[in-house]
Amino acid sequence: MALTDARLAEIRARRAATTPGPWAIDAPYYWPGDDDPHVSSVAVDADCMPVLLPAPGAQRGEADLAFAVHAHHDVTDLVVEVEQLRELIAALTDPDPCAYDHHGSCQTHGQGSDPYCAHGRAQALLPPEARDA
To answer: Which helix (H) or strand (E) is 69 found in, with range?
Structure first.
């Protein structure tokens, strides 16, 4: 299943709305009444539902909560998309290395209109183990 432009826009918007951080697992917990005005915490209520505990003066606590709640699904979709794209790039890319002439044209793949050969750019997107396959 492809990640649609609309789905990607939703993920991008959630990420853009969050506080800049720091985001860390070992960050101290801030409860209402604590002194840090920039950090919100998420707790779980008795029904295992996420509850926002905004820090005093937190500007975007609800956006942080929405980001955290959607993270598992968003990351799963993004990982699937990356894996599919890598597989496709590997299948469509000539594994031979580029050989550029003095004009910057790739002699291996016959491409010279771009500053870099499309095959070379595609090869750079693949992890090293996929490039050697």
So the answer is: helix 61-92
